[in-house]
Amino acid sequence: MKIADWHPATRILHWANAVLILGLLALGVYMVRWEAWGMYNVHKSFGLIASLLIIARLCFRFIYPRPRQPARSKIEALLIEWAQALILLLCCLIPITGMLYSAASGHGFRLFSIPIFPSNEYSAETGEVVIRNAMLSDMGQWAHSVLGYVLIAVLAGHILAALKHHFIDKDDVLKRLLRGTKRNAS
Question: Per the domain annotation, does 129 fall within a domain?
Fold first, then answer.
């Protein structure tokens, strides 16, 4: 019996999101570590693009559910379901908290040069942007940071699990997600 393949659009959205999200996480850690303030607009712009791709992926997932996978233990199947749901949830929450942080801090955000949410005026006294809501800004910044580190941990587990399937279990789950080959069920 043939195991169904991932839809080509699902594979494209998965890998496009993977590249964008890993890049955004690396850039986010770099910006915070090295106080690279000039990179924030790049981070925000690609974050908005990743958000749109996540929304597309979620919509597509309702139309084309994930294919049936090879038999696994109940614990492994449950861990996979929870991890994938957590990844998608975090990929939705992280951009929301980032937008909350940017909007409440008065910095706004734009898609490269296209304003999405305007920046506030700068204070004549301090030269700093005028904060709209300090409490929401602090909450958004904290949540964005914490959720980002949680996503890094969950993605590390996701990647290790994929490598385990490929190199230890020697199944073709990763190959099918990469190139879309159908397999016989065992």
Answer: yes
Helix (H, G, I), strand (E, B) or coil at 126: coil
* Enclosing domain of residue 68: 2-180
Residue 1 has pLDDT above 50, yes or no: no
Is 114 inside any structural domain? yes
Q: Coil, strand, or helix at residue 109? A: strand
Cα-flanking dihedrals φ and ψ of residue 116, to 5°? -105, -50
**Could you read off the pLDDT of 80-112 as tens digits, one per residue?**
889 999 999 999 999 999 999 999 999 999 999
- For residue 169, CA distances in Å to 55, 72, 141, 163, 166 come to 32, 11, 40, 9, 6
Decide if 186 is inside a domain. no
Name residues whose C-beta falls within 8 Å of residue 25's C-beta, 6 or more positions apart in sequence. Answer: 148, 151, 152, 155
Q: List pLDDT tens digits, range 31-77.
A: 999 999 899 999 999 999 999 999 999 998 888 887 766 667 888 88
Residue ranges of E strands in the chain:
2-3, 109-111, 114-117, 183-184
177 contacts: CB under 8 Å, gap ≥ 6: 6, 11, 14
Let me know: does 57 contact 17? Beta carbons within 8 Å: yes
CATH of the domain at 42: 1.20.950.20
Number of domains the chain contains = 1
- Residue 185 within a domain: no
